[in-house]
Amino acid sequence: MGGRILAIGDIHGCSRALQTLLDAVRPEADDTIVVLGDLIDRGPDSKAVVDKLLLLSRQCTLIGICGNHEEMMLQSLERGSPRLLWIGAGADATLRSYGGTLAQVPREHIDFLHSLRDYWQTDTHIFVHGNINSELSAEQQVPSVLRWNSITGDEAPHCSGKTVVCGHTVQASGQPLLINGFICIDTGACSGLWLTCLDIGSGTIWQAAETGTLRGPMLLETGRGKESKRA
User: Fold this and answer.
1) Residue-level pLDDT at 95
2) N or C end of the chain, less CB within 10 A?
3) Mean pLDDT over each residue of the chain, to the nearest integer
């Protein structure tokens, strides 16, 4: 596989932060970008986020991981009305971005949501949204763990020896969490903090706020961040 592997944490509808990151990292045709789920909800423009990712998928390789928020939206689309669980998790912001109703979500966006994966792995890394059972191979994982479980800090390194890259557990420090073979890069984009992009090969990170502020490039620091509740 040529080019860089760039992982992006929970975007949560923060389209301006996403664009700021993309302008900074300048993806090229041989790059692979992995978005770690929770692309939608809470932030100001989930529709614009999906539009940008669809465009990006035509410019380089895009790997989309399904987060718990995409799961809730897909379930709502299947039943034809928003689930109560989704409404309490930021669905209103997403629906507003589409014009107010599920019926206004374009077919291309629905197909994109259906294309999202439970996980993706390379020879050295496993990419998931939430957490992973360290005793099971990637192929044996339960989707609910991958999408809903938070990082506790007590996880053992994965049995494969690969580094697990995830989102979902908001780091209130605004800095990625590195612990026991895990890297969590949900740094609170929709909470007034940062959207993080990590270059897997070099350990370089860029961070963007929804205000358009950018910081980086800088090297990922070792150590433990401060965890917050799941997103």
Assistant:
1) 98
2) N
3) 95
